[in-house]
Amino acid sequence: MGKDKSAQRTKGNKKPSSSGRTAELLGGATGFVGFSALQDLGYVPAASQGTTANDSTISAEFRVTLRKMTKKDSTTKIKALQEFETLCGSEEAESIKSALPFWPRIYGKLSVDVERRVREAAQSANKAIVAQVGKQLAPHLRVIMPTWVLAMVDPHAPAALIATKAFQEAFSSEKRAEVLIFTCKEIVDHIADNLFNQTPQTLSDPKVTDEEDMKSKYLRILSCSLNGLSLVLATTSSLSAKKPEASASIKPLLQNPKFWKLSKHKSPQVRSAWFSLLKGIFEYDNDLLEGIWPEVSRTVLSSLDDHDGAVLPHVWVAFLHLCVAYPDIWTDAANSKSVFRRMYSVLRDGGRGSGSELYPHLLPIISLVPEKAMEDKCNFYEEFFRALSNGICKDQVMTSSRDVSAGVKSLYECLLFVSSVNTDVKLWNTLVKYQMVELVRSSFTDKPQLSSSNLYREISQILRIWAWKCNFEESSRNLHDLIDLFWVSFLLVCEAILEVGNEVQLAKAVDFFLVLKTPTSKFSSMREGVKFSDEKLNCELPEGGKSKWSNKEKEKLFLEMTSSNLAPFTLMCYKCYQKDNNINVYNIFAILLSSFPSSRLYSALLYGAGEEKFVRELDVVQKLILPKLEEDSLAIINPSVNMFLSLYSLMEPREQETILKSLKQSLSIGALRLLVEKMTERRESDPVAAAWLLSSQLGSFLVQLIDILCCPERSKGAGSHSGQQDELISLFNFVLRNGNKKEPVISMDYVSEILMKMTLNLKAIDADTEPEDQMVQLVANLAGQLFSSYVCWQTNGIQEFMRSLFLLLCQSSKSLCGDTVEILKATFLKAFRGLITFTVENSPEKLLHEEGTVSIILKDIKQIVMEDSSTFGLTLTLSELVHHLFVVVYERVKGEEESSIMLDHSKIQTMLNILIPSENDWTEIENTLCPLYVAPAILQGTISFREFPFPRNMQEDLTWNQKHTRISLFLCELLLVLCHCEEYQTDDTKEEVYLGQYTCLAVVALHSTCHSTSMMDLLEASHN
Q1: How far apart are the C-alpha atoms of 585 and 591, rounded to whole Å?
Q2: Which residue has the higher pLDDT, 739 or 451?
């Protein structure tokens, strides 16, 4: 019962065998056994040499691998291809060459496999064998190149990339085109066979392949065939002498009616590839289409409104080439109407998902449309721009910022072109109203996406070009009317927005005017559009020997024209603000006054629109802007400062001095901060601003403000300065860090006074007062800004301030929170590091001067450690701090002399000597030790007077004074740090260090250790 065990398990194999046995059998076979699956591979061109490979010469390993490639299972194929690639890298050259004759046919089948991983592995295997055989590939080129070319355009990107890289590595850049020309006939024949003869059923085995897979494979081969021919044309276009040879191979394919039917194929993938090939033919050689122009025209024109957006860019590029190569398409009125109708349909749909690729072609297309084809030019342009703008404003287009920007760019390029060829008043009334003003209005109201596009920049640019051309070109005087027309219509929209008072809409208007003044302010990275010769910025005057106007002069001309047009609206904004106190309206007014000032506007602001008087910028600032700088609201201050600076830059130097001197101390802190920052930015080019920054007027004002900053309770009577602590912090942060420059923002004398004030505030915190964390952090942060400045070390009072900062750190280590102590410590170390750097670079001899900051701070540390009230915690904190100080100094001076450890350096020894108590100090401290601690050791005989120097005088009471222990601990911590050598010492080795004159410190440490241990035992025993 059951299956007969002797029955064969595999068809054709009566006796199962291992892979090794198979290789042995195949090695002795006389024929290429097992490749029956390769008998029907479709069309594969015969080898040019006509040689027949002797399959008995192939090595056994390659036989097994090649046989596995014929299996139906994708995994088996992939593994076989990987094995083949490995063999190509490990086998001898002769063995690899023996497999070469059989490779092209197998490669041709695997390169079009349904499974993309198989195709990718096939390209890797092909790359491997091609790299090994070198010139031996030549006899097989005509066979392998058709498959190879199609592989380079495989829709599976990794496969295409590998195939392309293999081709580039196999042939030099000079030889690639020649190889394709050499095999052009075989390539074209292979492509023609794919296009005209093959079907889904012939390319796949219907018995083992799903219908869906057969269809997708067929469509992929169709599109790859078309794209492959495009690749051949693009690669060989540089070989002009060989073009006739290639054209002779390609022309029969183009004359086949089946080729033109592919343009209507159901698959968008195939249609895209077909029109891409047609574009390549146009670029390669128009003569290929000689005699079939009507067919080309019908095919392209009928596809202009293809329903698939992915196809349209290829169709429109082909249409553009057709317009240039075959102008006769416009001779038939019906053709023209059909073209326009189809174009408008696509434009109204927003490019059907491909707007960013379609829109750039519009300007070249309309520039090629002859007037006869338009019939009614005005109607044509109206229809064209209406379709374009409606398409841009469609909701699905608005979701793509790329499509919107490309559409807007194309719209205004086309408008600029039409303005140079058509001046019809009625037409431009419509275009300005609906294509310019209406789009801006929509960006303010219902199409906010337009406001974040390049719309404002494009309008700004077209207005500039019109302004330049109407002043420099006699033939363009009519453009002045277009500019007036735009402003009349646009200002009506702006007035309506003012009446509504919507905050969002007013903010959009602010954006528009900002970009109008500086087109690059909002969109710094823009695609450059098509340029015409008459758009060049270097417009030439018709008289005076064609002297060129600079861009600066032309920009000035534009701003003057715009200021004149905007003056009434600016006045309206100011009156509207006075009436409603709307901040957004004030912002618009500030931008308009700052960007587009004019004498007419000045007069209207001060005396009303009815009178025109001569008014200086100085008058406007004094009467209109300075009062606003006394307000506390930043929403008012920011635009007011911008207006101040804009008008300030237009004044004469004497007027600038006058206006800066007129600044009062009633100025708000926010306004003062902004003015100081802005004036610092321009001080290098503005001597008046530089002088004001260094003046006593500003310096003395800042000195007064530092008290309010450090002691907020003092600001209660300061009126306008109360509640502006954040602004004060920002102001002094900027001033003390010198505006990120090496030069001080204000005079060094006033920086010194500010330091003295800060020092006094620190000293005002006596030992009985617990400082507030907020105040200490504030001072520390301000000090950090100051210490970031290189020039601060030249300031009087800096050393005294550092000392006060250090004493505060010592005093407040208990009362302040941990974060504040760390901030204070980091600030002090930053100061110390800066001081050491400055001193070493400028006056190294003063580094450890007796009256220098380093010596004074070390003496302070010594004094604090030796105080009876000092604690172990404070002692350890100070030892850590001194450790950092030693490291900072050593890093700056270690190059002066050779030293293996810090303790060996003379300057470090000098610092340590300052910290070590004097002999009298030691005597006094040792007098506090209790003599009882030595009794056990003496009685046990473990020490003697000759071996151990005891203190000279010891009290007999049991009181334990810890001062000696604390000082010993402090000095031992320092010795450990100074004797440590990270450069040489490892975890397993310990370097012996000779202490020399500092051996006494080790003795002191032994005293303290013994004393502490004994005293703890005695105290514990006494309590028991």
Answers
A1: 10
A2: 451
How many helices (H) and strands (E) would you count in the chain?
Answer: 51, 0
Summarised one tens digit per residue, pLDDT across range 364-381 is 999 999 988 988 899 999
**In degrees, to the nearest 5, what angle opens at C-alpha 353 toward C-alphas 352 and 357?**
100
**Torsion, CA 942, CA 947, CA 952, CA 955, rounded to 10:** -10
Half-sphere exposure of 372 (CA within 13 A, CB side): 9
Reported in sequence order, the residue ranges of 110-176 that DSSP labels E, i.e. its strands, are none
- pLDDT, the chain, mean: 80
Alpha helices (H) in 326-454, listed in sequence order: 333-348, 355-358, 362-368, 371-374, 377-392, 395-398, 401-421, 425-431, 438-444, 448-451
**Residue 847 above 90 pLDDT?**
no
Contacts (Cβ under 8 Å, ≥6 apart) of 707: 714, 757, 761
Counting every residue, how long is the chain?
1024
Q: What CATH number labels 22-29+38-170?
A: 1.25.10
Residue 753 contacts residue 796 (beta carbons within 8 Å): no
Side chain identity at residue 780, one-letter code? A
Q: Domain limits of the chain?
A: 22-29+38-170, 173-284, 291-413, 922-966+975-1023
Question: Could you tell me which residues come within 8 angstroms of residue 802 by beta carbon, excluding any fewer than 6 positions away?
Answer: 828, 831, 832, 835, 853, 857
CA gap 960, 1014 in Å, rounded: 10
Q: Which residue has the tokens 């691998």?
A: 65
Give the span between the Cα atoms of 288 and 245, in whole angstroms.
12
Q: Please give the distance of CA 743 from its chain centroid, rounded to a whole number.
A: 31
Q: Which residues contact 14 (CB under 8 A, 6 or more apart)?
A: 8
Is residue 516 within 8 A of residue 504, CB to CB? The reply is no
In our burial notation (b when 16+ CB lie closer than 10 A, e otherwise), range 18-45 reads eeeebbeebeeeeebebbeebeeebebb
**pLDDT, tens only, 178-212:** 999 999 999 999 999 999 999 999 998 888 888 99
Q: Give the model confidence (pLDDT) of 334-361 as tens digits.
A: 888 999 999 999 999 999 999 999 999 9
Q: 223-257, pLDDT tens digit by residue?
A: 999 999 999 999 998 888 888 888 999 999 999 99
Could you tell me which of 891, 921, 932, 930 has the C-alpha nearest to residue 908? 891
Residue 953: which residues within 8 A CB-CB, separation 6 or more? 923, 926, 927
Q: What band does 780 get if pLDDT is binned at 50, 70 and 90?
A: confident
Task: Give the per-residue pLDDT at 179.
Answer: 94
CA distance 856 to 214: 91
Residue 138 CA to residue 143 CA, distance in Å, equals 10
H or E segment and range at residue 341: helix 333-348
Q: Report CA 318 to chain centroid distance, whole Å.
A: 37
Query: Residue 138: enclosing H or E segment and its boundaries?
Result: none
Other beta carbons within 10 angstroms of residue 408's beta carbon come to 24
Q: CA torsion 302→304→309→312, rounded to 10°? A: 110
Amino acid 458 reads: E
User: What is the pLDDT confidence band of residue 280, given thresholds at 50, 70 and 90?
Assistant: very high
Q: What is the DSSP letter of 894?
A: G
Measure the CA–CA gap between 151 and 119, rounded to whole angstroms: 8
- Say which amino acid occupies 432: V
Residue, of 242 and 949, whose pLDDT is higher = 242
Tokens 């208007």 correspond to what residue? 509
Torsion sign over Cα 120, 124, 130, 131 = positive
Q: What is the pLDDT of residue 874?
A: 79
Rounded distance between C-alpha atoms, residue 759 and residue 874, angstroms: 23
Instruction: Give the closest residue to 922 by CA, choosing from 888, 956, 963, 881.
Output: 963
Q: 29: helix, coil or strand?
A: coil
User: pLDDT tens across 693-714, in order?
Assistant: 999 999 899 888 887 777 655 5
Q: Where do runs of H (alpha helix) occur along 788-899?
A: 798-811, 818-842, 853-866, 872-893
